[in-house]
Amino acid sequence: MNGLKTILIYGALLAIGALGLQWLELQYLVRAYPFQTYAAIIALAFLALGVWTGARLFRRAPPGPFVANDRAMQSLGISGREREVLGLLAAERSNKEIARELALSPNTVKTHVSRLFEKLAVRRRTAAISRARELGILG
Predict the structure, then answer these.
(1) Which residue range(s) make up the domain with 107?
(2) For the chain, is the Cβ count within 10 Å smaller at the N or the C terminus?
């Protein structure tokens, strides 16, 4: 116990000495380069102010629950099942996975996908998902 106390005392004294030397070095640098030191302090203050202001001004409200645009679905003639297929397309599922999940045949899924392409006036899955999001059909 006595040896541990001695080690702790010497360790604390060495730490205080190291801090003192660092403080002296800082004092030297501040005196040797006063303009750069003050410029750095002002730059850090403006950086902190900018981050704080940006966080306050551009705070985003949490999005509310998604509500599908029923009018767009009705005007395009998209059925509920096609809406389900579109949601699974957005989840990057393959035709086989969609067929398994909805208990349909893969050919039926292909038919739904091709009808969605026609109704949304697109040629690819990614374009269909993008168009559905624009119209408010998908969240």
Answers:
(1) 70-135
(2) N
- In the structure encoding, which two tokens stand for residue 27, read together? 């004092």
Query: In terms of domains, do 44 and 81 share one?
Result: no
In a domain, 63, yes or no: no
Whether 115 and 64 have beta carbons less than 8 Å apart is answered as no
Q: Cα 102–66–137 angle (5° rounding)?
A: 60
Residues in Cβ contact with 76 at an 8 Å cutoff, skipping those fewer than 6 apart: 119, 120, 135
Note whether 90 and 44 are same-domain residues: no
Q: For residue 124, report the phi and psi dihedrals to the nearest 5 degrees.
A: -130, 160
What is the residue-level pLDDT of the chain in tens, covering all 139 positions?
Answer: 688 888 999 999 999 999 999 998 888 888 888 888 889 999 999 999 999 999 988 888 887 888 888 898 899 899 989 999 999 999 999 999 999 999 999 999 999 999 999 999 999 999 999 999 999 888 7
Tell me how far apart the alpha carbons of residues 4 and 40 are, in angstroms, rounded to a whole number.
Answer: 43
Domain membership of residue 99 (yes or no) is: yes
pTM, 2 dp? 0.56
Q: Which two tokens stand for residue 126?
A: 């990614």
Tell me if 64 is assigned to some domain: no
